[in-house]
Structures are given as structure tokens and as C-alpha cells.
Amino acid sequence: MDTQQLGLARAASKTTPPSSSGFSRHVMDVLEHIEYRLCDSGEDLEAIYRLRYNSYVHAGMVKPDASRMVKDKFDDLPNSYRFGVFFDGALVSTIRIHYASAKYSVSPSTDVFGDVLARRLSAGETFVDPSRFAADLEWSTSLRVLPYVTLRLAVVACNKFKATYCLTAIKEEHSSFYQRIFRSEQAVPPRTYPGLTVPVHLFQSKCSENMEATLDRFPFFQSTAFEQRMLFHRPANGELAPLTILPTAKYFSEAA
Questions:
Q1: Minimal CA–CA distance to 173: which of 149, 200, 152, 191?
Q2: CB-based burial of residue 248 (10 Å sphere; 0-12 exposed, 13-18 middle, 19+ buried)?
Q3: Torsions phi, psi of 197, nearest 5?
Q4: Between 67 and 198, where is the model more confident?
Q5: How far is CA 81 from CA 13, 78, 141, in A?
Q6: Contacts (Cβ under 8 Å, ≥6 apart) of 151
Q7: Helix/strand/coil for 3
Q8: Which of 20, 23, 191, 248 supports an S-S bond with 227, CB 3.0-4.6 Å?
Q9: CB-based contact 129:108 (threshold 8 Å)
């Protein structure tokens, strides 16, 4: 989750969720209107690149560019998953997730913090590395739980891939949110991040220690194996990918 999470990160830093079931019920209600879409080509992919651009330019994190899109060398890697988040059919946010392992070791964080993370990958650790988090400016103001709805995809990825850690490359002022929600801790001091005007800190959350508590406190992060497979399954040649994937957290709520 790099510094260019901008629209959502600002909203997240101002949103302190109560631990009450009322907050979870509200997010569950919002999820009834949410669809996730894995974007690999076509108009959807262009739309999330434009959404990134609009969000980042507004926050002063990138300079205006004639293409009006933001993409980088990490987007097309085989371990990269680019998602659009839709509310009642409208694109409201986007996030990119890499799963870094010994097989596919490259991701934004393993590149910037490679001297530290390469050794850990060689030792068998695996990482879910969310980045390019951006939100529609109007929706991020009116739909204040959008950070949770979008970051839910990172939690789903951690459960799908059984990752050792979920990484978070962020500005210092956003660290309290990730500490509070995911029990993230600083792993590497701040460094320069390519394309950004401010340094980023690498935070991490150890899944085996923190995931259960996160799911207990925020049950809207729950997901079924079916949803995990639909979100992160790479279709074989000639196989059609699902157009949209619906959140499945409600099934855990209904069973409780």
C-alpha cells in the first residue's frame, strides 16, 4: 500500500472505527452494493489508471501528464492483480496487489526494500504487497468506509495465499491507521520511493499472529474460499474470467 493511496488513505486516517458491531454492520450494508473486478485489459484497466492519475494529481503526488494515466513497471508482472471496486456499478476505488514469493519475487516493496526483503524471501517467507491505492475524490468523501471496503482485498489475498506478512509502504502520518486496524509494525526506516516526493516507511503485519484478531474485530474482512479463488485465479487460455466478484463476508455474519 504505497504512499499513492492518497484519496483512501486520507479518509482512512480520519476514520476511527468503533469496535462495536454497529460499525461492522454498516460496512456489511455497504458491501451489499459492492462488486470487485479484476482488471487485466480493455476499458476497465484504462479506467483504473485514470482514477490513479486523478487522485494522485489532486494530492500533488505526481505531475500533470498528457496521458492522464498512471501505470508503472510492476503492473504487468505475473504476480500482479489490479482491481476496480464498484459501488452500484460506479468505479469508486482501485488497488493493486502483488503476491511475492520465491517463484515471483518482484513487487513494489521487494524492489524498494530489496536488500532486506530478498533475504527473507530466500528463507521461505511470502508477502502480500498492496499498492496503487486510489479513490474517486467525491466518493472518498461521501463513502467514508471506502478504505475498509478496498483494503478488504488485501486481507482476502493474505488468506488465499497464506502469506507470512502483509506489507505496507506508507507515509508516516498514515501509520497509525495500519497499526490500529492490522497491528502493523515498522520493518524498515523510511526510504525514497520512485516517482514520489516523500519518503515511505515499510510496515508489516504478521498474518499468523494478527489475522485472527483482525477478522474477529472486523468480520467484514472475512471471505469464502470461493471468493478467494474467483479474485485471484488466473484463467487458462480460452477460459473466461468472471466479470465481477461479489463479497462473501455476509455468509459468515448470517452463520453467526
A1: 200
A2: middle
A3: -95, -5
A4: 67
A5: 25, 8, 26
A6: 1, 8, 12, 95, 130, 133, 181
A7: helix
A8: 248
A9: yes
